[in-house]
Model the fold of this input.
Amino acid sequence: MSHKVYAPNVHVFAFVLQKAEEKEKHWLWQTCDEIIYKILGANFNLMQWLDLEKEPDNPTVSLIKEQEQTEVAPIEGAVTFENAKISINGFAYPLRLYDSYGLWLNLHRPEKENEQKTEDVDIQLLRQLNPENCLLLNKNNNFLGETLILTAWLPSEEDYPNDQALRELADECLKAFFPQGYTIPPFARSATLFGSPIFEYGLFSQLTNYRHILVWFFNDTTSEDQFDSCQQDLLDLFFFRAKVVKAFQQSREVYQDSNKEYSKIEDEIKTLEKFGETQQLTQKELEELSNKLKILPKIGLDYANLLRYLEDYQNTIAINSRNYAERLQQISGMIEDVSFLERFSLENCADFQEQIKADLGYFNHGSSLLDKAIASIRGRVAIDRAKSDRIAEDKKEKSDRNLEITILAVGSAIGSAGIMASSYALVTKEDPVLPPFSTPIPHRFTLSIGYSLLFGVVLGMLIWGGDKIWQSYKKGTGNRK
Done:
């Protein structure tokens, strides 16, 4: 079944951060030129309309040069459809919003030509306004996001008597708008905005490939007039919305990185179990733990930075959610029912902040765990290294003492040999050494050897006893310390 609509419009609201590399500095304006060339075959050159330094202190300003005496760059052209030339008009509205640039690009079938109302057109015309899917912008590093709105007048309300029929028409419009075989973003919800039915596509549960698309059918002039009167406010709303969604998307990437780092921390802590709690660490184990004291603080620093990024994204969402709510309050002063727009602020923004809050609560446990592990390792290494040093010192003292005794023994032996040698001169042919107890008076050689041995024994006992007393004194002093 062929569907027709009257005066279809395509609105693209796209946003990008100002701070970009030189090669991407004019990406948004160049993308606009590429879109217009693909659709209308015309070289638009939006840059010739721009003054990027215009009113630098103004947070929101049109970037069209003042001498142009207009805030938008008009677009005129035609597309070929069903072997006929169909006029397409529109405009490009470049602007600066706070720290970003925005572009509102509009392409539409005019409502009148030569003061005559234009005819209804088949919805397949929409594909001519999106060749090669050019209106879905490719993401670069500074791209914040876009909202795409298709609007049209219903040729006859009798043909679409209920919400289900309108929903089917919205689906058909998207099928016509996107290339053959392209997966249409999933349906999210329907409502009324400014008194006319609107259908939203794109789910946050599919955040990686999220696209925000609205199909809006006007059924009276009041709806279109209210849309026109709120255009600047709606543009701001879509900007704040884009910043919120972008921050949440980036937070999910940081969440994945944080989860990996958390697992790494858990693995590092599990390796500490093999060291036990009571046994004395070997030198090899001490070196291994000392190396961990070099590794773990670096892991902790990287982990802390990831948590800081999460907090930054949480703050970004909070700030832009508040901005969104304030701007919506201004719109509600002019329009009665803004519940469709309000849902994002009340539900989605709150959910995003709660999710990040839960992430931080979970991951902060990892920081605490890591700090405790580092403190435990430092204490264990300090204690066991002190024990090892004390044992090594005791061994050295014992070795030194043994060396002293050895030197004393050798010295004594040498001394004894000297005594023996000097005493041996007392033995002569006239006075030979006889067997013990064979004479009433011991031989002079025997007396010399005996006195020497006695003197040596007494001296040795004095040295040995003095060493024992000195060691006991040292131990007593060490215990008192």
